[in-house]
Amino acid sequence: MKSAPNWRMSSSTTSSNCLPIARNLLDDGMSHIPAELETHLLDDARRWTGTRPFVIGIGGPSGVGKSTLANGIRQLLEHAEYRVLIVGVDDFFKDPRQREKLGEWGPDHIRFAELRRVLDLIVAGGEKVVETMQYRRVPAKALYPWTIVLDDISVVILEGLYAISNELRLGSLLDVVDLPVFIEAPEEDRKRWRFEQEAAKPVSKDTEQMEKHWLEGILPDTRNNVMPSRANTRVLVRVDPEHDLHVEASDPRG
Question: Which domains does the chain have, with CATH numbers?
């Protein structure tokens, strides 16, 4: 489990613009979602008339807090009585033995074909159960059987580095996303948070290994594969150094 950034709301996002349900969540300490993003999420979910789940995609660089945002959105939507499933790109890592042979981090560590098969079954509608293999770190790094039960699931949150990419080599995951969200933060903050996430793992890289991982794996991947998908987002969320969230733009594509 990744350690979650301890996000806070900025004063600009705790105004009367918050929906009543969002204010209740904030009072309960359950969510830290900016009001404009709450509006996008709840309005889009309520307008959805499809016969299959509504899919929210959350993309962004390593260490920025995609999983944290996904869990906050899940809490918000579940409080509004939606049934929510989170699917992580990380769930589709390859077997650790394969990854060792691949070397430093890159998209080739992901089972994109299997991820797309699962997502395509979900968005096709009609399936009640989807069987696949999920990468987990405990009790040991390995692939484990994963039965995804879709009964009454109304919203799927797809989160991960390439969750809103439209590039074929990265799975073209944007094809299955209804609301693309991109979350970003200054590089120095992302690096610090990513190192903290690593240190919290049961078995972690040391500082020297993480520096190599950052310079040779994460930074090139961010530049070449993650940041281009920023252009696909409808909602851009920025995390500042104090962990406050700001909705910087709605549909920055213009």
Answer: 8-158+175-247 (3.40.50.300)
